[in-house]
Every structure is written in C-alpha cells, then in structure tokens.
Amino acid sequence: MKFEGIYTPAITPLNADGQIDRAAFADVLEYLIEARVHGIIIGGSTGEYYAHTAQERFDLGALAKDVIGNRMPLIIGTGAVRTEDSVEFAKAAKAIKADAILVGSPPYALPTEAENAAHALAVDKAAGLPIMLYNYPGRMSVSMGREFFSTVLAASQNFVAIKESSGEMAQLHMLAREFPNLQVSCGWDDQALEFFAWGAQSWVCAGSNFIPREHVALYEACVVEKNFDKGRRIMSAMMPLMDFLECGKFVQSIKFGCELAGLRPGGVRAPLQGLDDNERQRLQAIVGELKAEVAAIVGGDAR
User: Which residues are catalytic?
Assistant: First the structure.
C-alpha cells in the first residue's frame, strides 16, 4: 500500500450527554471525503481513543467502514497499553476489511526496542494488513530506533510506512537514509515542509479535520508540483495555527475548528476541558486569516 497525500485522524463527535454521536461522526467522514483528503484514520490520538471503551472503538471502526465503503483508504488505530488489547483491535480491523492499521508503542510500559518490536509483530500477525507505524515518544515515552526498525522490517513486509511524530529532525534523517523502503509520513505538523523536502509523500495531520483543502494545497505544492517556493508560502500561512495547536489544548482546538467548519463535534471527554472564550476567538481569527492567505496563494477560493 502506498501512503500518498493527506491522511486525517478523524475526531469523534460527542452529544450533549458525552456519548458518541454517530450521525455527527458520519457527517465528519462525508465532509472529509468531499474535501478529497486521501485517507482517514480512526482510533488515533485526535479521535480520543484513550478515552473510549473497547466496544466504542470496535463500533466506531465498523461505522467508519460502513460510511466510507471503498471510497478512500481506512486505517484503524490499535493503540493500547496491553499487547493483547492491540491484537484485538487489529483483529477487528481485519474483520471489517480496513485497508491498513496504525501501530504505535504501548504507553506507560516503557518497553525496550526488542520488546516494542515483539509487540508490533504480534499486532501484525493478528491482522495481516499493511501497517503504518506510529512513533510518538512524547506520548509513549519510548522512541522507535534502529534496532526496532531492523527487527520488524526483516520479519514482515507489512510494515510499509511510519507516522514520525518525535519532532526530532535527526530521526527523519535516519529514516530517510537508512530505511528508504519505509514510507515516511509527517506526524509533526510544523515540520511538514521539511518532511516533504526529505521525500515524504504523506502527512497525517489533525488540522485537516477542519481545513482539509489547505492541507491538501501544501501537499500538492510540495509533492505533486514540486514547487517548494509555493509550499513555503503556504506553510508560512499555516504556522500561526501550528503554534496555537501546541498551546496545550490540542484536541479541544481541533474540535472547535470543526465547529467553525460547520460540523457538530461536541465537547471532549474528561479529563480534558474545552477552550475558553478568549481561546476560541483567537483560533477563529487565526483560521480566518490562514484560509484567506492560502486562497490567495493557490489562486482561488480555499473554503
């Protein structure tokens, strides 16, 4: 499987009672399909998977497949503390005929590279699907390194891509130079331009939940058109948003962005809390300016 383009880790809308709003979730998926992103990820950090029961995650994956059908790739996240749980999420992804799975390091356990590789291979064995690895040491407290990559890539051809979210440019350089057969996807938003310059063909970006066309515009400028002058201008327009998203209320900001886009995201699950009025006003202003700037750059309306 080739990972090319913008892959959106979809939000999970909630109703007033804090339960998953299935109709609003379906609307999010239709919005992303209409905006022509290139793939959708369910059960990622942006989707608040950590705050869901196992059954909710199974149900969301199945609902996503029912809505999306074969219109675009569906990737299912398998993140969990226990390997046994990740295996069950992988089996469920196989059962609904997902196109791929997302496999990260188990949080809190602090596995060695060898143990982390054993975890990934167990999940792989359960699904037999293409795998996008997910390296996010900021959340998991361990990083996938040379030993890990050498082990899993030698053992299975299903490991085809990685969402690299360490924020460390040295990690990107190592992946591009030493593991050229592993497709690198940007997972650290303010480094998207650098990832594309180093050969990345895809970007897993939470902001594409509410400004998908602007994210697609950057991908097309850098990867399709290979016009990095244009890409730098688009990236510059996006930087205020990137900075805001790192203010400490990431998922809350993404969900409010979706509200601005006319979707019905609802709130967030505890322990998170929503944006205050000042934060909402700031984000609204940032998004409005970003959209206007990108529209001017691409020579059309980027609504």
Answer: 134, 163
CA distance 35 to 32: 5
DSSP 8-state class, residue 265: -
Question: How many residues does this entry show for the chain?
Answer: 303
Question: Structural domain boundaries of the chain?
Answer: 5-225
Q: Which phi and psi angles does 63 have, rounded to 5°?
A: -65, -40
CA distances from 156 to 79, 91, 204, 272, 275 (A): 19, 17, 23, 38, 43
Name the residue with tokens 């593991």: 179
Q: Are 153 and 130 in contact (CB under 8 A)?
A: no
Task: Kindly give the residue spans of alpha helices, DSSP state H, lying in the chain.
Answer: 22-34, 54-68, 83-95, 113-127, 137-140, 146-155, 169-178, 192-197, 212-219, 228-245, 250-260, 277-298
Q: Is residue 286 predicted with pLDDT exceeding 80? A: yes
Of 237, 231, 238, whose CA–CA distance to 193 is shortest?
231
pLDDT(301) > 60: no
Look up the CATH superfamily of 5-225: Aldolase class I (3.20.20.70)
142-157 per-position pLDDT tens digit: 999 999 999 999 999 9
Q: Are 78 and 89 in contact (CB under 8 A)?
A: yes
